[in-house]
Structures are given as C-alpha cells and as structure tokens.
Design a protein that fits this description.
- The structure is a single chain.
- Helix content is 36%, strand content 16%.
- By secondary structure, the chain is an alpha+beta fold.
- The chain has 2 domains: 85 residues, no CATH class; 197 residues, DHBP synthase.
- β1, α3 and β2 form a beta-alpha-beta unit.
- α2 crosses α3 and α6 packs across α9.
- The model has no long low-confidence stretch (mean pLDDT 93).
Length: 303
C-alpha cells in the first residue's frame, strides 16, 4: 500500500524501487524475446533505464521508444492511420524531430515584449542568436531558450529548454535551487551534437529523443559531474542538424568558444507547471525564477 511505502526507511525504498526496475526490465526483455525490432509506446516507454536495457541487450536489430509515449502519442498513431488506411498513402513518413507544437513569429514575440514594457535586444541573424546565447552561457549564466515549434511530448529537445554550462561548478545547484525548486541531487540531460557524442558518451539511438540513458567516458567524469547519475549513467541528448538545426549550431558555437560542445538541458518550466509554449509563458517564467537571460526567437532579454 502507499502507507507502507511511506513508512519504509529511505534505504528500503531505494532497494524496493531497484527491485521493481529490475523486474520490469526482465519482464519486457522476455516479452520481446524472438523479435528483430522493438517499438515501445505507452507510459512505461518513458522509463529510460528500460529503453537502455533493451538497447544494450544485443538481442534486437533496432529499438525505438516513441518520444510522446503516453496517451497524447495516440494522436500520431491516429494521423498515420488516416494517412495510410483512409487516404491510401503508401509513402513512409520519416520524422525529423518532434517539434510539432505551436510556433511564434518575431512579430508575435515582439508584441508580447512591448506589451510587457520590456527592454530587449534584437538578434537579426542566426550567428547573432547563437552568439548572444554563447556569451551568456560561457559566463556561467543560466539561459532560457525558446525557438521554433514546441516539442510534442514531455522532453525538452532544444526548443523550449533551460540551458547551463558544464563548466559552471554551481550549475546543478543553481538550476535545482533557484529555478526548478527541487532536490539538489537531481541531475540534468547533456545535449551534444550527434557526430561528437562518441567522444564523451556511450549511448544508443534513442538519445536523439532523450528516451534512454548513456554512460560517460571515464576521462570526462569530473567534467560532467552535474549530469551523472549512479554508475556513470547520463541522460544524453544527441542533436542532429536535421532534427534541430539552430540548437545544433548553438552547441557547435559553444564548443568553439569553450572547447566543449555540450550543454546541460532541462525543460523550460517552473516547478509543478507545464512546459512553456508561447512568449507570454516565457516572460512569466523568466521573471518568476532565477534564470539570467532569455533568447526567444530573434530577441534577447537579460536581468
């Protein structure tokens, strides 16, 4: 019962959770026995340790975890069903990223900023957008990043993200204490261009959607202490140019400036709230937290 769990000592709860996790992994591996490829959906597919266990088992040619694996993901299935069975289309649709939500123009964002009587800086070009962001991050400032269409699903994949530098020894504490308002032991994902990921991490294909866990290479343990879970595990987010060109460019620009093309990434939302969608959400969350700067579209806000 729930009461029984609450009355458990902390150590017992940890062992109990580990037992459930191990049992889940063994059950799903048995369920998928004999399959060449495994496709996961449903809320259990958000269990990144389970996805990693399937990837690392060596039993399957491919493992795919639907990024919007919960009930909301049925919208994708419904659309594909109509596409194939009602419209009679045979073309396979390849997903490049899951940014399927609303997008806001420069005019939309500017109107909100002006309505809120904010002082902002215009960033007309992509190099100016990434340059302004890198200037903030390389000075160990926490940056909110709102670009393009909102992600579909619960993971921040570089469109509605809060970003921090791995060079900052206080980044995890600042993110948890002054923004997320949660335990300081909680860790963050590490975003890295996919073509450079192997230098720092061992991870599977589902890292593209933040649906699995990888392992940090031993020589980088100290560098990524803010992202490391138990046993050197890290929530790795591999970023491709095809999936998210602007975020990919930001990571490369940060690497050119600092020598490390990796950023800590967490969802752009405050504790207990939904992820930011539009510019008004972004402004409210920005000024209600310890975030230092916001790059929204072609505009920069600073505190």
């Amino acid at each position: 019962s729930h009461i029984g769990l609450q009355n458990m000592a902390a150590g017992d709860r940890i062992h109990f959770a580990a037992s459930i996790q191990k049992t889940l992994e063994e059950y799903v591996l048995g369920l998928a026995a004999g399959a060449d490829n495994v496709c996961l959906a449903g809320g259990v597919a958000w269990n990144a340790l389970l996805v990693a266990a399937l990837e690392n088992s060596g039993r399957f040619k491919g493992v795919f975890a639907q990024p919007a694996a919960g009930n909301s993901g049925t919208a994708l299935g419904a659309a594909l069903h109509v596409w194939h069975h009602t419209a009679g289309q045979t073309t396979r649709l390849d997903a490049h990223g899951y940014a399927l939500g609303p997008e806001y123009s420069a005019g939309d964002i500017k109107r909100v900023f002006e309505n809120c009587k904010l002082r902002f800086r215009l960033l007309p070009t992509v190099p100016e957008i990434t340059g302004a962001a890198v200037a903030q991050l390389s000075n160990n400032r926490i940056l909110a990043w709102m670009q393009g269409r909102m992600e579909f699903g619960p993971r921040a994949l570089g469109n509605r993200s809060i970003l921090a530098s791995p060079h900052d020894p206080y980044s995890t504490e600042n993110l948890n204490t002054f923004i997320k308002h949660r335990e300081t032991t909680r860790k963050f994902a590490a975003s890295v261009p996919v073509e450079l990921a192997g230098e720092y991490f061992e991870t599977g294909d589902n890292a593209r959607h933040l649906a699995t866990v990888g392992r940090v290479r031993p020589q980088y343990r100290d560098q990524f202490r803010g992202a490391i879970l138990a046993n050197d595990l890290v929530r790795v987010h591999t970023v491709t140019k095809e999936d998210n060109a602007l975020y990919w460019q930001l990571l490369h620009a940060f690497g050119e400036k600092t020598g490390l093309p990796v950023l800590y990434n967490t969802s752009f939302n405050l504790f207990g709230e939904q992820m930011v969608c539009g510019p008004r959400d972004a402004v409210r969350s920005f000024y209600s937290s310890g975030i230092d700067a916001l790059v929204a579209g072609n505009f920069l806000l600073e505190k």
